[in-house]
Amino acid sequence: MPTPPPTPVDVSAGILVRDGTVLACQRPLDQSHPGKWEFPGGKREPGETREECLRRELREELGIEAEVGGELWRSEHTYPGRPTVALTFFRVDRFAGEPRNLVFAEIRWVTLGELQRLDFLAADRELIAHLPRLLASP
């Protein structure tokens, strides 16, 4: 009997929106996918909802208390030699505090057009193509 595929790694990520820009974060050079850009977030812990996971990750990575908005996008991606990642992206329009770079190589507020020019993780690229439409509705 074949072995069932491993359960995907459940990840929540935030699309932080401010004044027509979104927050992009560059991965540290000493981690997997060094120097690639991504949206902030991370792996869901047992017992957490996807929204609770994102609030915790944004506190740990950026030092903010976020009000997680609606779900924007879901996708799955498999990197070679790694378990599949199941991503849920949420819109974040409101948060307390100014995002501070606590774990990344760099963070940057960028326009939707500028997102296309950054070297994003493969798992985020499909979403980026759809973001102008997804963010057009509040």
Class from secondary-structure proportions: alpha+beta
- Helix and strand pattern: EEEEHEEEEEHH
CA gyration radius, whole angstroms? 15 Å
Number of domains: 1
CATH C-level label: Alpha Beta
Number of helices: 3
Biggest beta sheet summary? 7 strands, mixed
The residue fraction in helices comes out at 10-25%
What form results from the Cα inertia axes?
Answer: globular
Q: In the CATH classification, which architecture applies?
A: Alpha-Beta Complex
Look up the CATH topology: Nucleoside Triphosphate Pyrophosphohydrolase
Tell me how many strands there are: 9
Distance between the termini: 48 Å
CATH superfamily: Nucleoside Triphosphate Pyrophosphohydrolase
Task: Give a structural overview.
A hairpin with a 2-residue loop joins strand 1 and strand 2 (21-26). The protein is α+β, with helices and mostly antiparallel strands. It is built from three helices and nine strands, in the order ββββαβββββαα. Helices cover 23% and strands 34% of the residues. The strands form two sheets. Strands 1, 2, 3, 4, 6, 7 and 9 form a seven-stranded mixed β-sheet that branches.
Offer a quick outline of the entry.
This protein is an alpha+beta fold. The protein contains 3 helices and 9 strands, in the order E-E-E-E-H-E-E-E-E-E-H-H. The protein has a single domain (21-136), classed as Nucleoside Triphosphate Pyrophosphohydrolase, CATH 3.90.79.
